[in-house]
């Protein structure tokens, strides 16, 4: 991954012995060991649920939003899911103002997501792209990496606006 991205994408795969191996650090240790390299693997990751603060990664005018409701699932939202959120911070002259209730699609989540080839993808932060009720993005640019799982969730327009697909 290039160093210019604001978020890092981690691919975690399974080795032949069945243990988790981090794709970037390559560190392996026992469960009693807490080193800086595998602390990220042992950190608790949760769904995006009510009151989760997310970063907005498009140019719609909002900076941070707080999740009000996940529209799918009892536990919360994951990659590609739509949420209802309230704008907590916004640029002064953007399309979206502070306090407005908006829809958003989760494009980066700190919780791991398994892929068909057996690998898993996770990000450093929770990020969202704001959309209207029909699912079309409000902004015209999407910053940072976006996972290709959005294609399965029918968010192709977000993928075309993204600068990097992970």
Automatic annotation (TrEMBL):
Belongs to the universal ribosomal protein uL14 family. One of its GO terms (biological process) is translation. One of its GO terms (cellular component) is mitochondrial large ribosomal subunit. SUPFAM superfamilies: Ribosomal protein L14. Keywords: Ribonucleoprotein, Ribosomal protein, RNA-binding, rRNA-binding. This is 50S ribosomal protein L14, chloroplastic. It comes from the Eukaryota. It holds the Pfam family Ribosomal_L14. InterPro entries: Ribosomal_uL14 (IPR000218), Ribosomal_uL14_bac-type (IPR005745), Ribosomal_uL14_CS (IPR019972), Ribosomal_uL14_sf (IPR036853). GO terms for molecular function: large ribosomal subunit rRNA binding; structural constituent of ribosome. Gene3D superfamilies: Ribosomal protein L14. CDD domains: Ribosomal_uL14 (cd00337).
